[in-house]
Amino acid sequence: MTAPPDIVRSAYATLAVTSLEDARRFWVDLLGFVVTYEDKSALYLRGYDELTHHNLVLRSGPAAGCEALAYRVRTENDLTRAEAYFRELGCRTERCPAGHTRGIGPTVRVEDPLGFTVEFFASASHPERLQQRYDLRRGAEVARLDHFNICVPDVPQAYEYYSGLGFGLSETIEDSSTLYAAWMYRKQSVHDVAFTGGAGPRLHHLGFFAHEPHSVLRICDIIGSLQLEDCIERGPGRHGVSNAFYVYLRDPDGHRLEVYTSDYYTGDPDHPVLRWSVKDPRRRDFWGHPVVESWYNEASPVLDLNGAVRPVSEISQTAESSVRVGADGYTAPR
Amino acid sequence: MTAPPDIVRSAYATLAVTSLEDARRFWVDLLGFVVTYEDKSALYLRGYDELTHHNLVLRSGPAAGCEALAYRVRTENDLTRAEAYFRELGCRTERCPAGHTRGIGPTVRVEDPLGFTVEFFASASHPERLQQRYDLRRGAEVARLDHFNICVPDVPQAYEYYSGLGFGLSETIEDSSTLYAAWMYRKQSVHDVAFTGGAGPRLHHLGFFAHEPHSVLRICDIIGSLQLEDCIERGPGRHGVSNAFYVYLRDPDGHRLEVYTSDYYTGDPDHPVLRWSVKDPRRRDFWGHPVVESWYNEASPVLDLNGAVRPVSEISQTAESSVRVGADGYTAPR
Amino acid sequence: MTAPPDIVRSAYATLAVTSLEDARRFWVDLLGFVVTYEDKSALYLRGYDELTHHNLVLRSGPAAGCEALAYRVRTENDLTRAEAYFRELGCRTERCPAGHTRGIGPTVRVEDPLGFTVEFFASASHPERLQQRYDLRRGAEVARLDHFNICVPDVPQAYEYYSGLGFGLSETIEDSSTLYAAWMYRKQSVHDVAFTGGAGPRLHHLGFFAHEPHSVLRICDIIGSLQLEDCIERGPGRHGVSNAFYVYLRDPDGHRLEVYTSDYYTGDPDHPVLRWSVKDPRRRDFWGHPVVESWYNEASPVLDLNGAVRPVSEISQTAESSVRVGADGYTAPR
Amino acid sequence: MTAPPDIVRSAYATLAVTSLEDARRFWVDLLGFVVTYEDKSALYLRGYDELTHHNLVLRSGPAAGCEALAYRVRTENDLTRAEAYFRELGCRTERCPAGHTRGIGPTVRVEDPLGFTVEFFASASHPERLQQRYDLRRGAEVARLDHFNICVPDVPQAYEYYSGLGFGLSETIEDSSTLYAAWMYRKQSVHDVAFTGGAGPRLHHLGFFAHEPHSVLRICDIIGSLQLEDCIERGPGRHGVSNAFYVYLRDPDGHRLEVYTSDYYTGDPDHPVLRWSVKDPRRRDFWGHPVVESWYNEASPVLDLNGAVRPVSEISQTAESSVRVGADGYTAPR
């Protein structure tokens, strides 16, 4: 069995959007993402701390969907290793030359065992360093991509697959019979990827890191100022899992993003797993607030290597939202 | 007609609680109120900025209720004026000597035309100044009482009555036919008193000022740490009305308090009124989040001068919660 | 003796600047003040919370100086009263019609007994309300003018004069023989005016209120980003006096401003004075940091009613900066 | 040549203090460090996020000094590798059994080529997880150790030595002829160790991570409240290097610590180095404030494996503090 590629971190995603103009207004004008490059068909965006070409590609398409989730690997050899690894798993793969994805070196793209299109790369161009350009910061003042959260019908299967790729487990939501959700990491943070039990493959959300709770509150205030409050789906709040301060927003195509601040270091070799009971009303919101229904049910379709929408399988385990706990989603709000 | 007393500000409230021990655990141990004095039957609490004896008296009683809302008046003459003013209005009044309310000079207590027991005083003792004792700050780090919010069946009536007392109007929620809520002030802030349309007289909540949004977030985090999240009723969030950052909590007897930060200066003689449409989903939460049902429906009973529970009249106007707007309370959460 | 005018608050200042273009770059582009109106000779600026026409007028002039400090009075009658009051004091006065100062009703201008040109007004136009336009906020996110700080050779004289005008005393720096500095208020905050002992009449600084410490830190970060760090003179820090969080900046003409957050309520009739010993190293900076020499020595000239620079008298009492205390200005930095 | 041990991160330091009682008052009562264990001769302290036994050992000793800086290595094999590696470098080493350092597995201790006593360990016990015990947080709310900053007479030599150990370079202060300071990392942050040019070996400071600028401001406010402001040596401020928000404090023995918040991710294989000119007044303080003289000159002695004070060599290169730039330390404060 080929060793898996040495994955460094979650790095960027490519989303198909139905109106690039509307998407630009949301992601750039409102949220304040930095434009590294743009043309008629796509926008390449990054956070203020990101030192590579982009954290997000928005590409004009006929329907909204997630074209790819991209992980950085350590060396070019890891691309070769990725190709072999996924072929052995029976996955469709393709290799693209440098620049096929703008600003990025050669890539290997795969349809992974969970049904997601995943892109691996080992090198990227370095745009201007903006970390200390406080004069430019606007909107949510997003620093960088933090994680992907994906909907999968079978959470243990996703856990096994990502364990095989060398991801560590930081936190779970579980009970004696079911693993409802799991958070896994390569970089030294709570996660690069998390699994939400549900119909899948679908992209639940992209998590972007901001430095301060102030940024989370401020983007909500700006959104209210502009009477765009419908795009605030859930939060701000404190997560139980990860301890991060968060808000979930929806873009004009319904793609969900999270502005996420301050989790914790996970780099020690024996980093202990934190297991939350599904009965703990604080697991999803440390202040006990209910999760809104749309947050459990809605997600972005996934596109395959040909750009076609992947069929979705229904959840094959107990849904977390069906567990009746005091403050949770499907129970009545207090 | 006698001129009304010159009211300086909302100053303190007296609440009856069914377990002083439980109340102490909540208000002192958890929220961090400063104890000015306590004995077997009562607790006298203040915020870290308050320079008079107390902002809150918790008195042991057979049933939970609001014994009194207290306003400071400018001089002892204003007490005499208050007595005359309320007698002319046909209200029951009583005069109590200095010390009858601990730490407070002579008082005039009245059953006001809205059915609330209100206490007026002109002088109070000064406890130790703790404004710069950051080493002592805990919990919500409450600075001082900011306002009373009361449930009244007829909001225009309450507005007229408080206008007569010389209160200015800062903000309203209204439509062409109904005044749903109003905020009125004597001190140079958004309010000393606000009216929520509903069965009344009842006390909706006591608003306490904190200096920073951080205090609002932190008290929620502390509450989550202690698995007491049921006491967080609504928020944190940004108010449309007042622009303050807030959270609503419930004490063990169900008394509601708000931790409230940073509104704005209203001291100019021609301070303009801000009128919110009841159709604006941002009026109660600037981020468009629904108001929970309990927040509209539940409130504390009011006690009369004899300590008996005042009968409650049903609301006599259209209820704000019955107005179907996108994000509001009685509509489904998104 | 005529009663003094009923002063409501410090409202705006007019500064002469030698380059309106440079001043615009500093106050508008960098600090984010809102432009209510501008023409070739002047800029009318306000903070995001201000509901009247302006907090600051910058007027092009041959030399930098302070043309006027403006206080709002309660009614038009107070203008007449002001005229009589200052004439009785032997001060030169002049009355100007509405619009003479743009956006402002009729004014009475005086050369006050301390040598400052002071403008009184009772009415102003109301520009668009921007308090909840978080989408527009930039720079230091200044909300409104908070206070004037003036250099006077004789602090007790300034105290007596402003006491006569009905100002309350909130804090002092003193020892058994000298009153080094004093803070006095009309609105319910720590001050509308403060006195720094030194050659005078000169304007020490204009204090502008911001809602959060974050705004103070952020404007410094923006200034660093633009390599303009020379304009940060002192702070950020916590004041002992007032307990506010602060930073002092200098504009291109050397005019000093303070961004100032969160002091405390002073509206009670018997509000107690806080007296700081000049020996307490925390009085000027609660963290004990030295005051830089320029902060004690430099200030803006004052212009008389004819626009001529007022002659300056040397300090006639012990200078605060000459008191050798552990951490203070003229002692060596640690 | 033996490969170096695989170092995970800077983990803890052991300091000798002359009064454990005074040290406890400072580190525990004031700063709020968590006590994992204490006895008559030592205190074992950690931050609220730390999941291993301690970040700091304070041991009672005859004179103040730094007994050891400890790095975590990946596996027990790395201990063997460390022993071999340092013996080849001609360094004195010693191996200690598990528990020799309380809460820690077997260690290898060395006198490194720079003259510091360094301890390597691969395993530690896990105390109670307190990351979400907001109810316990006090003082500076320190989360974990972030880095060591050491004084060395020859910065390039230190850079070469730590490069050999596999550390990456994140930032420098330099000019065409001199490397004045360098920041190096193993974990994915700006640094685990930094070098300040000066007489050495000495410990310049221990850097502890906090989650929010609020924690930095708050500990200063608490210190001011207790009239202990002499222990605030420098800051709060924003670093140019690292972009972190910081304050430097001194303990009763003069040991220096930094409370340090929010730097940036450095985990990418080609992470670019940020090189600051020594002439940039923003390099040490992004707001251009001078560095106080004591910060450049004072540091803690280092103890050898026998507990004896290491002799100190004078700096062998141009001192950064001798470079006359506008706002820097040895020039006059503005």
Strand content of chain A: 25-35%
Helix content of chain A: 10-25%
The radius of gyration computed from the alpha-carbon positions of chain A, rounded to a whole number of angstroms, is 19 Å
The tally of strands of chain A reads 18
* Chains forming the largest contact: A-D, 33 and 33 residues
Supply the helix-strand structural class of chain A. alpha+beta
> Count of helices of chain A?
5
Alpha-carbon distance between the two ends of chain A: 53 Å
Low-confidence runs of chain A (pLDDT<50, min 5 residues)? 327-334
- The ordered H/E elements of chain A are EHEEEEHEEEEHEEEEHEEEEHE
Q: Tell me the quaternary state.
A: homotetramer
Q: Describe the biggest sheet of chain A?
A: 10 strands, mixed
Overall average pLDDT of chain A: 96
Tell the overall outline of chain A. Answer: globular
Quick rundown:
The structure is a homotetramer of 334-residue chains. By secondary structure, the first copy, chain A, is of the alpha+beta class.
Protein model, in words:
Four copies of one chain form a homotetramer. Chain A is of the alpha+beta class. Helix content of chain A is 16%, strand content 34%. Chain A is built from five helices and 18 strands. In chain A, the strands form two sheets. In chain A, strands 9, 10, 11, 12, 13, 14, 15, 16, 17 and 18 form a ten-stranded mixed beta sheet that branches. In chain A, strands 2-3-4-1-5-8-7-6 form an eight-stranded mixed beta sheet, with helices on one face. In chain A, strand 10 and strand 11 (179-185) form a beta hairpin. In chain A, 60% of the residues are buried. Residues 327-334 of chain A have low confidence and may be disordered. Chains in contact: A-B, A-C, A-D, B-C, B-D, C-D. Chain A binds chain D through residues 8-9, 49, 51-52, 72, 74-75, 123, 126, 129, 131-132, 143-144, 187-188, 211-213, 240, 243, 262, 264-265, 267-272, 274, 286, and chain D through 8-9, 49, 51-52, 72, 74-75, 123, 126, 129, 131-132, 143-144, 187-188, 211-213, 240, 243, 262, 264-265, 267-272, 274, 286.
